[in-house]
Amino acid sequence: MDMIDLRHLAYLVAVADEGTITRAAERLGIQQPPLTRQLRALEERVGVPLIHRLPRGVELTEAGKVLAEEGRVLTGRLDRAIEAARRTARGELGRLAAGFTSSSGFHPFVPAVIRAFREEWPEVALGLEEWGTVELADLVRHEHLDIAFVRTPSSVAPELALESVLDEPMVLAVPAGHRLAADPPEAGIRLADLAEETFVMYRRSAGPGLYDTVIAACVAAGFSPHVGQETPRTLSTLSLVAAGFGISVVPASMRRMDAGNVVYVPIAAPGINAPLQIVYRRGDRSRAVQHFRGVVRRMARTAAL
């Protein structure tokens, strides 16, 4: 049997609804003779009578009623599929896979953006993953993620775009009872005063930007820091600080993490900052990604005021 055109089913549905071929033709915007020919062609394809011709109007056979009802379902699904495709193209439907680093997730800006995006585009399914900066950039590059909040990668692939969002200061995390926690200067601790300390650092392979920033700042202050431990996550860094393994320099937003036995001390080095950025694929035409970037930019402007 030849494939039935959905258009033919729509013709049959119109006849079922209107009761006459004349009114069905008017509804469909075609002439009556072509509609009659199309209905006969449909009967030939199905192989059974679908319509009884009456003195006034027409009546569907039992087979015609069944086919018309199924046709109504199919054409309705098609209409919904077309509308879903249009809404997806507008970024109103679909899915967005986003990522963030553990440290950026503690900055209030990130959950605020996520909340605002979900409120503005509630029918876009938003998936979230937490990884290090390097892993996030790689996941975006290979299309496992669409966009991610990252710190500063040492470099990004040419097919990726990196967009600055904001900078936040970094603070010193020391164990409770440490000499630097007792009575820190109001202006903050000088990095030069940390020359004899043991540092706990976020592993460079996961977060090269923050790692290099801290090392460069210490070298500029006249010493090369002694790194006693490296960790795969910022939260692990704070856990080791709390256990007395050393001190660490972390983004100020990490103060929101109640690590226990950790005291946060300002640093008298205004140039030591933790940038927050977004990374996405150049030329990505996804409207959902564009909407997310729009929310980020709008809220970044508001945060800067």
TrEMBL record:
The keyword DNA-binding applies. Residues 4-61 form the HTH lysR-type domain. Signal peptide: none annotated. GO terms for cellular component: protein-DNA complex. One of its GO terms (molecular function) is DNA-binding transcription factor activity. Keywords: DNA-binding, Transcription, Transcription regulation. PANTHER family: SMALL NEUTRAL PROTEASE REGULATORY PROTEIN, TRANSCRIPTIONAL DUAL REGULATOR HCAR-RELATED. Belongs to the LysR transcriptional regulatory family. This is LysR family transcriptional regulator. The lineage of its organism: Bacteria, Pseudomonadati, Pseudomonadota, Alphaproteobacteria, Hyphomicrobiales.
